[in-house]
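Course exercise 7: structure representation. Students receive a sequence record and must write out the corresponding structure in token form. The form below is the worked example handed out in class, using Outer membrane protein beta-barrel domain-containing protein (192 residues). Read each field label carefully; the graders check that inputs and outputs are placed in the correct fields and that the protein name is recorded exactly as given.

STUDENT ID: A-19
EXERCISE PROTEIN: Outer membrane protein beta-barrel domain-containing protein
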Amino acid sequence: MLTGSKYGLYTFFCVCFLSASSAYAQPSDSVGTNRPFTEFWTKPLIVPKLGVGVQDRLFVEMGVQWHSIYRHPLTLISKGPYCTVDLFIKQSNVLVGPKLGYEFTAGLLGAAFDVTYFIDHNYNAEGANRKAWVATPKVGLSILGFADLFYGYSIPISEERITSISRNRFSLVFNINTYYFDLKEAPRRRKG
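STUDENT ANSWER:
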């Protein structure tokens, strides 16, 4: 049983402990304003999109992407529509494929979908041309959206077919966004 001076000493320590903890506590209105890791989307930027791949034969992919990066404490996410051209060359045959698509990556995984209009120049002995539409879903590995290693499967969506290339494709594509090199200072999209 606490009596006399022991009760006063106990009360003194309790008051000191409670007042000290409230005196050094962080005010509730400052929570979250000075975090070491901030989350934000960068402003979209038109960036070069360059790559190589194989679809029975080697091809080069060149174009641009309207690219945004989301900075999160755990990873980076990137997204954006793109417009590129696939170029296949084999002896006298030239296969050109302008395309429109959309790409989304999160950390080490990515996916894309594009629609390509292939023009197969001089595909036969008479020098005739073939034209065909193809839709290609792609999935694969990504290095935070900067470099993508994708597998895609081309699905014909027009009457005419391009039979000189396989439906299976592997590609390594680089999205050359300068924001990756200094993400902390990259312009940010306004919240709204």
